[in-house]
């Protein structure tokens, strides 16, 4: 689908309203600026004193957002930032998009109830209709949907319960580097877990291939290992209830699944009657260049886990699955806040806007352009090990330029300290980025699908400047531990500090 003229006009207007950088500092009276900065610092101090040590993004991004539009956030001190975090991928249309605000206001002005548990409403019916309109062919015509609690991890838990009930089995297959949420079952399937109920399988990638070969050969070895685990009676892995995978590992470091390997996983699970669960919480709603990331490979999963962007910036999570898996008894899975009417209205507007205006196709085009422009950084700076991504999920892996590879011709060790430094330098230049990866060494970009060409250039310029500043700065030995511990910025998205769900 081509990008329509109305969509481009809307994006252009958004660009005019959302000037990039710190332009609001210019011409402001010094006293006014100092007062705003003091107020922001007070808010940050109170947050540090009152909130849990589990907070994440607030540590690395010491800003206090007070206004936002499209790609741009304005802090309480008046500074403006280009937001390539986008609520960890939640804001497909950016901040406060007009169609989202209009949908929310319409519900508020109508007098409709905002809390209805799982009762049928016109708002829910419209959301479900639009959602089914976007689903991959082969699933939409025989799908069921379960509305869950407000977060993606709730939908993952529901998916696990679903396939266990449908198959009568209990075990799950998941992959190294995965991230599926912060509740107990989701954590078991994520990369940092070690519970025996989940069997970990190799997830193929080129840069840090688990077999050291990469490419199609590495993906084939990973597929063969999966077959061996399932077919070897002495492997210790009984036939599982399901397999869960991300078409692109986001928190794992922006690692796209090879299309051929994903098709092999579909074949392997189908021939063994193992339901395949696609976690599209972060990859869905056009972000990777298709409406759903599984569409790149033509795979139709048995179950899809959806959240983040489907709520149009508000909390919403659902599980979509084949009707023959629907063996639940009434009340087998419930949740007080599964009927979020404002989120459904905002989600309907977002889904329709992305579909009608070809924003998935635009994400594919812009993502390809960004990867092309960032690719040369690998040869220019020794601290840049890899540049990868799919659509508007972009990752730049930082490596230690002074450390030798673990194996000949292999990648250098990850450098989370350099990634943190790049994030800090980006923030100084008015650019918000996320960190991730199995070693917290990957700088991640998740801009909204409405980002303009002009804004894309600004993002690339600021990111490149930040990487160059870090690459040119002499590296100092790590300081000795201080007697008094002070709060330090922490890598956003590191494996033990997730907050995306």
Automatic annotation (TrEMBL):
<keyword id="KW-0808">Transferase</keyword>
<keyword id="KW-0663">Pyridoxal phosphate</keyword>
<comment type="similarity">
    <text>Belongs to the class-III pyridoxal-phosphate-dependent aminotransferase family.</text>
</comment>
<feature type="compositionally biased region" description="Basic and acidic residues">
    <location>
        <begin position="13"/>
        <end position="35"/>
    </location>
</feature>
<dbReference type="InterPro" id="IPR004637">
    <property type="entry name" value="Dat"/>
</dbReference>
<keyword id="KW-0032">Aminotransferase</keyword>
<dbReference type="InterPro" id="IPR049704">
    <property type="entry name" value="Aminotrans_3_PPA_site"/>
</dbReference>
<dbReference type="InterPro" id="IPR015421">
    <property type="entry name" value="PyrdxlP-dep_Trfase_major"/>
</dbReference>
<comment type="pathway">
    <text>Amine and polyamine biosynthesis; ectoine biosynthesis; L-ectoine from L-aspartate 4-semialdehyde: step 1/3.</text>
</comment>
<dbReference type="InterPro" id="IPR005814">
    <property type="entry name" value="Aminotrans_3"/>
</dbReference>
<dbReference type="InterPro" id="IPR015424">
    <property type="entry name" value="PyrdxlP-dep_Trfase"/>
</dbReference>
<dbReference type="Pfam" id="PF00202">
    <property type="entry name" value="Aminotran_3"/>
</dbReference>
<protein>
    <recommendedName>
        <fullName>Diaminobutyrate--2-oxoglutarate transaminase</fullName>
        <ecNumber>2.6.1.76</ecNumber>
    </recommendedName>
</protein>
<feature type="region of interest" description="Disordered">
    <location>
        <begin position="1"/>
        <end position="50"/>
    </location>
</feature>
<dbReference type="InterPro" id="IPR015422">
    <property type="entry name" value="PyrdxlP-dep_Trfase_small"/>
</dbReference>
<feature type="region of interest" description="Disordered">
    <location>
        <begin position="471"/>
        <end position="501"/>
    </location>
</feature>
